[in-house]
Design a protein that fits this description.
By secondary structure, this protein is an alpha+beta fold. The protein is built from 17 helices and 31 strands.
């Protein structure tokens, strides 16, 4: 009977083996597919980030349009509407022409004078002004009314009532003009005798009577040398002048003084062109030798701001003749006497584009209102330019270097992405965010690594097995707490109490370790007949009670410690003694909260690393007479070092990517300061704060994706380095 049972059992055993083989193969295939899916997902995320950032790396493109053969003399000043459908040209023959840019046809024409020797445009005010040889200037507004009929956009240009102003004596005496138009029209003219004539006309409308009263003012300003270029601030409170001997002058038009309020040297070469960028704070200076620089007022302690040369651009091959600033950002066109043209950006210090579009004897230049084009005028006609440069503010220097921003006393790393002012200068330095990320990670790991690693060592090597089954799951359950809950508690509960009890925290840093050591020593010193009656592992409760008692004593004595050592107020003492301010939401709060979130991850991996050390190694060490502590330090710890390093690196990655805790508990101040008493802003928190308000495809939007790529690169680099180090450590201690 037994002999007959064997043949019947063989097919069943073979079938079971085949099923196991098939299951193993299916499992291996699923694991491979999962691994490849993870890799594909990571590569897809990387590809998406790169695709969103790629437009930032694309250089600016300036493309000339077909040349328009417009009638009349060469224009001296130009205006173009926001749709780039029409342009207003004030010619040397004294005629104002409105030209349709589709075909170059003149749709409006009005003679204003016999001839103009010099002209200027105020694109923001939609006004042109020209000065004739008799010393008369004509100011005329041009409007482009937009309407829609049957879904078709119609643009109706119109020429307003000309305003005639006496600015100088008869004769060819006017060298340069500057204009700001509106309810108050201000016109400045540089005269050949070295003076600067200023004419201001203000119209006030009485809403009750319907009457309009007009007041006029004419002043003569004294310049130390003949003035060759002028620029008026948007509010017409300051007038900037450039002289033939390379001096930059600033006149304060709010007072009665006729002398320059400020004078600075631009290097000796004659100044040929001046322009104020959007906001009226940055002054672009073009000189005879092709030099191009940006100036603005720098605040000084205890003294008025001083006009200083901030940055220089590469020199042009010929004298700078014209400057055309953008009305959207701090980009501007610069045109040289040889016809070469450059597109530059002030804040980033970039030369966005350089070229020489073909145009005979260029005489006028204007930047389109939307920043998507420009228009040049000359004897050859009108030449339109398409401009494609959506992200001129970004450069490596702007993202990671010190930049001297308008109104700042010195170059600095600044993140400030928005403001209520349309003329705001974006400050998009990622360096404060990177520093904040590393700062938060450092303080979190400063708390988490010692507690987690030493706790894992004690749990796996010293703690009684009965307690191990409770301690390890209990610590791992800490990882289930949502980050938003930890951030909420840190911001609303921990931060204010820590401010009140910070002296107690300092005392606990000394008192708690001493209490734990004293409790352990006392336990060892007690007679064996006393300690032996307690269950194994009871020393943990004894030490825990000592730690809790020491903490309670430190908290109860916090007020006395603060009175004795810190004059009754730790924040006030800190400010007076060290100059550091105490912010309620600071790095200490984040270190405690984020350390609490990181401890379970490091603890779990470190405990597994200690537990996976072969018992033969520790048993052999103990058999040779080593103590338990000597065995752990000299045998177990080196063998588990590879796993411990991985645990710390994974904790580092967890802290770097943390969002909600740092978002809620830091104050989100993007500053570079390693003080534990100040807040900070991290890359991840900045993305969470800014991305809902960032217009898709805009510069801020792509900068945030660059920050995400930087986070990706940091974690990838750290994990790769950790894997290499772990492999080296495993090889080194494999022989133990």
């Amino acid at each position: 009977m037994a002999a007959g049972a064997i043949p019947h059992g063989v097919p069943a055993v073979a079938s079971t083996a085949r099923r196991r083989l098939v299951a193993d193969r299916i499992g291996a295939l699923v694991i491979r597919i999962g691994g490849f899916a993870v890799l594909a997902s990571i590569l897809a995320i990387l590809a998406f980030l790169v695709a969103e950032i790629a437009p930032v790396l694309r250089p600016a493109r300036v493309s000339p349009l077909p040349l328009l053969r417009a009638s009349g003399a060469a224009p001296l000043a130009l205006l173009v509407n926001e749709h780039r459908s029409h342009a207003a040209a004030l010619g040397a023959d004294g005629v104002l022409r409105v030209v349709r840019l589709d075909d170059g046809a003149t749709v409006l024409e009005q003679r204003l004078a016999d001839a103009f020797g010099v002209a200027v445009a105020d694109p923001a005010g939609g006004t042109l002004a020209g000065a004739s040889a008799d010393g008369t200037a004509v100011v005329v507004p041009v409007t482009f009314a937009v309407s829609f009929a049957d879904g078709v956009r119609r643009i109706e240009p119109s020429i307003g009532e000309p305003l005639r102003l006496e600015v100088g004596p008869p004769g060819p005496a006017i060298r340069a003009l500057a204009l700001r138009a509106g309810d108050t029209t201000t016109l400045a003219a540089a005269l050949a005798d070295g003076r600067v004539a200023l004419v201001r006309r203000e119209a006030e409308h009485n809403a009750f009577t319907g009457e309009t009263s007009v007041t006029s003012e004419r002043r003569a300003l004294a310049a130390p040398a003949p003035v060759s270029a002028l620029a008026l601030a948007p509010d017409a409170r300051d007038l900037y002048a450039g002289t033939d001997d390379g001096q930059v002058l600033r006149f304060d038009l709010r007072g009665a003084s006729v002398e320059p309020a400020e004078q600075a040297s631009a290097g000796g070469s004659a100044i040929r062109a001046l322009a104020l960028l959007i906001g009226g704070r940055s002054l672009v200076v073009g000189q005879q030798d092709g030099s191009l620089s940006v100036w603005f007022a720098v605040p000084r302690a205890g003294a008025p701001p001083r006009l200083e040369r901030i940055r220089d651009f590469p020199r042009f091959p010929a004298a700078i003749e014209r400057l055309a600033p953008s009305q959207r950002d701090r980009s501007f066109f610069a045109e040289a006497a040889d016809g070469s043209l450059g597109l530059l950006h002030s804040t980033s210090g970039r030369v966005l584009w350089r070229g020489a579009p073909p145009l005979a004897e260029p005489s006028a230049l204007v930047f389109a209102p939307k920043g998507d084009g420009a228009l040049r005028g000359g004897t050859g006609g009108l030449l339109g330019l398409d401009v494609d440069d959506p992200h001129p503010e970004l450069s490596l220097q702007a993202l990671f270097g010190r930049v001297w921003y308008e109104g700042a006393p010195e170059p600095d790393f600044v993140w400030q992405s928005s403001s209520g002012d349309d003329a705001f200068e974006p400050k998009l330095s990622l360096t404060p965010l990177l520093a904040g990320t590393l700062k938060g990670t450092f303080y979190a790991l400063l708390l988490a690594v010692p507690l987690a690693v030493l706790g894992a060592m004690y749990t796996s090597q010293f703690l009684h097995p009965t307690l191990q089954r409770w301690v390890k799951p209990g610590v791992e359950i800490m990882a289930a707490l949502p980050s938003v809950v930890l951030g909420f508690l840190a911001a609303l509960w921990l931060a204010p109490r820590l401010e009140q009890l910070f002296p107690a925290l300092l005392a606990m840093g000394v008192g708690v370790p001493l209490a734990a050591i004293a409790a352990g020593w006392l336990w060892q010193s007690l007679p064996r007949r006393w300690t032996g009656s307690w269950p194994s592992g009871a020393e943990v409760g004894w030490i825990a009670a000592a730690v809790l008692a020491a903490s309670a004593v430190c908290i109860s004595l916090s007020g006395r410690i603060e009175d004795a050592f810190f004059g009754g107020s730790f924040p006030v003492w800190l400010q007076h003694a060290t100059g550091l301010a105490y912010d309620q939401r600071n790095a200490v709060v984040v270190g405690i909260a984020m350390g609490f979130a990181v401890i379970p991850i490091i603890f779990a991996i470190a405990e597994d690393a200690f537990s996976n050390v072969p018992t033969d190694l520790s048993a052999g060490s103990l058999a040779l007479g080593a103590s338990r502590w000597q065995t752990v330090v000299r045998v177990v710890l080196p063998t588990a070092s590879a796993g411990l390093f991985s645990a710390v690196m994974i904790g580092f990655g967890r802290a770097v990517g943390e969002t909600m805790i740092v978002l809620m508990a830091t104050g989100n101040t993007p500053i570079i300061d390693w003080s534990p008493f100040n807040g900070f802003r991290t890359l991840s928190a900045n993305i969470a704060v800014e991305i809902p308000e960032a217009p898709q495809g805009a510069t801020l939007y792509r900068t945030l994706f660059l920050a995400a790529l930087l986070l990706f690169a940091i974690t990838f680099t750290v994990n790769t380095a950790a894997e290499l180090v772990r492999h080296r450590l495993r090889q080194r201690y494999a022989r133990l």
